[in-house]
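input
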Amino acid sequence: MNAIAYRVDPRRGRDGLTTRVQHIPEPGPAQVVVRVRAASLNRRDLLLMAGTYPVPMRPGAVPLVDGVGEVIAKGDTVTRAEIGDRVTGTYFVHWVDGRQTHALGSQQYGANFDGWLADYIVLEEDSVVHPPEHLTDAEAACLTCAGVVAWAGIATPTPVAPGETVLTVGTGPVALFAVRHAKMFGARVVSITSSPEKAARLREIGADEVVDRCATPDWERAVLELTGGEGVEHVIDAVGMPTLPKSLAAAGYNARVNLIGAFPAPTGQGLADPLGAKYLSLRRPAVGSRADFEAMNSALDEHGVRPVLDRVFPFERAVDAFRHFEEGDPFGKVVITMA
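output
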């Protein structure tokens, strides 16, 4: 049976996702070839296909940066993996540790390097990561993007301290990972969501308090009340510019606010001096390095934590998976399995 890869014509958006025969690759000296078992979607993949992501997608590239599989071949100099190992890969091709540079940030799987929506992927040795053994393939395929960027917000540059309060905004995969990461560090978690059903599920995965923004439009005031008027020490805003003003209003003195969401501000919404008189740190983490990924995996392994899955689709229904991810309001990761 021929191997298959999905490839993208970014000029056609989701309609540009088509299948082609894939020849089994040969590894270079510092590469491994992985037979893919599962992959998962992120909002970043939709932005790439729409041509609105900062790094342009190479025409004909294989999409998806999240995935897991088995090493079937390796180059002569590879020492980080053996044949038969289960591995995943980093977001950035060669960012191992330390400060990220523009050059390191411009090389990404699923963008200008082929990603995981194929029977086989070639990984550079710098990218190889071993996922926690307690995770299934579908779960291990969910870590690279949402998991690591939430980890960067919670654990870097200094970890959340036990007893501090973390505000999570949204219920996409980043926010869900942030809830679980924050609880691993012993934090109190306040979450913002949009329905009683999602509120109940957030409590199930560890949120201590949940505010329904539809029932309480001025949710930033509710957060201040929950913190005795002090505000929270940490914010993971997984929505973006539409919620940033309220996130800033809910933040306490010298808080750390992480803007991770990719949604733009509504047309005509100005954000003149959004910080007002507050002293705080506003940052946008660039996912994370391989060292960040491995630190997160160690914590997941120690605490037995699993990603939240929404739905799993077979490989031949990848287009349906994209449609569900974009239009179905999923709670958790949308996964595509190859087996």
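quick obs: The longest helix spans residues 290-303.
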